[in-house]
Write a structure and sequence with these properties.
This protein has a two-stranded antiparallel ribbon. It has eleven helices and two strands; from the N terminus they run ββααααααααααα. Helix 1 packs across helix 4, helix 8 crosses helix 9 and helix 9 packs antiparallel against helix 11. The radius of gyration is 21 Å and the shape is elongated. The chain is mainly alpha-helical and 226 residues long.
Length: 226
């Protein structure tokens, strides 16, 4: 081995996944959640993970690729597009599809995972987007909005690209987005009786879905009478 070059000894694999790679991923998630991508360093991550200083490059190919891996892991743990699609496809009418769509998000945001780095790293990226994650976010975002547009399109009896449909989607997404990006203690302080646990989720889903359905029905009716 040449002088000055750090040797990486791959960790033993358990279940096909490198334990060292997973440890780096977990620590990086916590660091990115706390500091964001711009202020995080490979040095800090590897020190906290108690791994070789060159292990970020070895396992991920650099800090940018590690950040992408963290975002992908966070998204997979919270909600996957495949999960949304499969749950929606089981429903026979647009009302049930909307309940299911909102239920997936609210249940995820009320789950124990919401207190981990997963939710914080996603919300940080949404509020302060990086160019690093642009391709990853774009694909996921388009697929999920496409699913929602089709639901609202069915409910309103209008084409998916109609302005009223897109406005309806915005009204549905907004409360979910607020639950995602807002600091949970602050929300609990502002709305102490709302409830943010899994047992509270069904009531919140029912309220959000019925509120959205009533608004969509009212606007669709107004358009028919014009």
């Amino acid at each position: 081995m040449k002088k000055g070059k750090q040797e990486i000894i791959p960790a033993k694999k358990e279940g096909g996944v490198s334990s060292t790679r997973q440890k780096i991923l977990e620590v990086a998630g916590q660091v990115f959640a706390e500091k964001g991508f711009d202020r995080a360093t490979s040095k800090e991550i590897t020190e906290l993970a108690n791994t070789n200083a060159a292990s970020v490059n070895y396992y991920f190919g650099g800090l940018e690729e590690l950040y992408k891996a963290v975002l992908h892991e966070a998204g997979s743990r919270l909600i996957t597009t495949d999960t949304i699609r499969s749950v929606i496809e089981e429903k026979s009418n647009p009302q049930a599809k909307l309940y299911a769509f909102m239920g997936i998000f609210v249940q995820a945001l009320a789950s124990p995972i919401s207190s981990s780095w997963v939710l914080r790293v996603i919300s940080r990226e949404l509020v302060h987007p990086t160019s690093v994650a642009a391709p990853f976010k774009g694909k996921e975002r388009v697929e999920r909005i496409f699913i929602l547009k089709n639901i609202v399109s069915e409910l309103m009896g209008l084409p998916a690209n109609h302005p009223a449909v897109e406005r309806g989607c915005l009204s549905i997404i907004s409360p979910c987005f607020m639950l995602l990006i807002c600091d949970r203690p602050s929300l609990q302080e502002m709305f102490p009786n709302l409830g943010f646990t899994q047992k509270d989720a069904p009531a919140l889903v029912k309220h959000l879905a019925e509120y959205a359905l009533a608004g969509i029905a009212s606007i669709a009716n107004d358009m028919e009478t014009k």
